[in-house]
Design goal:
about 270 residues; alpha/beta; Rossmann fold; 4-stranded antiparallel sheet; 11 helices; 10 strands; about 25% strand
């Protein structure tokens, strides 16, 4: 087993007194891409916020890169987080700055490197994501998929030990999304970094994930490889991976959603 890079011990995660995820005990292993998978409202984003220092757990302990994350003061926590990178769902680029300036920003904020070294590092990262020649365009002047790749180059510019990705393929067509997944995998292999990817896209995890953690009903439902979860004997996990709708949609009985809606529509149409 690889060295843990993140450990959660007895963690309840949520907002105020509202528990979204309960009693989480799990490790994320160094050098792997771990996918946090689940449907809408399953708690994926809540867990990500808890892991990256934005949402203190209601109960329990979060260890990141060997440090008790929430035992650190704000200065120490910020210093620790500089060893990580973040790829936000919609890129979070500065629209008034060129792609080059967006990627260079962490270097200028957190290092004293000379300008020629910064230029070379930015050029290299943009080249890896296939954006050589687009350095001096504004984010609005490139496609959505290209903006995601600029954001990835920025997340990786300080050579972090781990990159967190929040729904990286959101809003992209399947071909562009698959290309981004391949680039994420290339980054992980080239720089031997760890990644945590929040997603609900089954096609993405087939390309990306070494390990999958599936969330539902406020708990971890399953942990394993894509193949293991696809063949799971647990109904909720099996149904998710095989796109089987829940019973209240598919039973076709008189109490089903579609039966009730269609009945109401028919009565309205015919004035009955």
């Amino acid at each position: 087993m690889s060295e843990p890079i993140i450990t959660l011990e007895g963690v309840d995660a949520g907002y105020g007194d509202v528990v979204i995820l309960e009693n989480l005990n799990v490790t994320f292993e160094r050098g792997q891409i771990t996918a946090l998978l689940g449907g809408s409202g399953s708690g994926k984003s809540t867990l990500l916020k808890t892991i990256v220092g934005l949402l203190p757990p209601i109960r329990g302990k979060v260890t990141l890169l060997g440090e008790d994350l929430y035992a650190l003061d704000m200065f120490e926590r910020a210093k620790l987080m500089r060893r990580t990178g973040m790829l936000y769902q919609y890129g979070a680029l500065f629209g008034s700055r060129t792609n080059f300036e967006n990627v260079a920003l962490p270097l200028r904020e957190h290092t004293n490197l000379p300008e020629d070294v910064i230029r070379e590092m930015v050029r290299m990262k943009l080249s890896i994501v296939g954006l050589e020649g687009l350095e001096y365009r504004l984010p609005a002047d490139v496609s959505g998929g290209q903006r995601k790749r600029v954001a990835l180059a920025r997340a990786a510019i300080l050579d972090p030990e781990i990159i967190f990705c929040d729904e990286p393929s959101a809003g992209l067509d399947p071909i562009v999304a698959a290309g981004l997944d391949e680039i994420l995998r290339r980054f992980q292999e080239l720089f031997e970094m760890s990644m945590v990817v929040v997603t609900h896209e089954l096609e993405s995890i087939k390309i990306l994930a070494d390990r999958v953690i599936m969330l539902a009903d406020g708990k971890i439902q399953a942990i394993g490889t894509v193949e293991e979860l696809t063949d799971s004997s647990k109904k909720k996990v099996y149904d998710f991976f095989h796109r089987i709708p829940p019973d209240y949609v598919s039973d076709g009985g008189k109490d089903s959603v579609f039966e009730r809606v269609s009945g109401e529509w028919d009565r309205s149409k015919h004035g009955k």
